[in-house]
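thread: overnight batch results

M.L. [08:02]
morning all. the overnight job finished for the chain we discussed friday. pasting input first so we're all looking at the same thing
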Amino acid sequence: MNIYHFSDPAVHSLPVIHNWWFCYLHGVAQHINEAEAKANGWDWQAPDCFVTDEPYPEKAGEYIGNLYGNEVVIVVAPHLGGLGGRAAINNPKAPCYKHVHNPEEWR
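M.L. [08:03]
and the structure it wrote out:
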């Protein structure tokens, strides 16, 4: 799955754009998304939000995505009465990796 900034012009060439509501990028992944938008002069959007070329999952689990050449792990889990998620660079040493894997810590 490819992950895109909301304002990335590439999303307009996708057959369908999927918003991953209540799923947020954290740490380095968020900074990559923000830097990509800034470097390309895209309209500002919340840097922790994203769209993908894959639909939002219907069940909890771990999902892998590509954020501008960087592998990201997305953990989707029950949260606030529905499914929510957090995403970080897919490296156990990366900042926020442990937080993403601990839904009890999510706000």
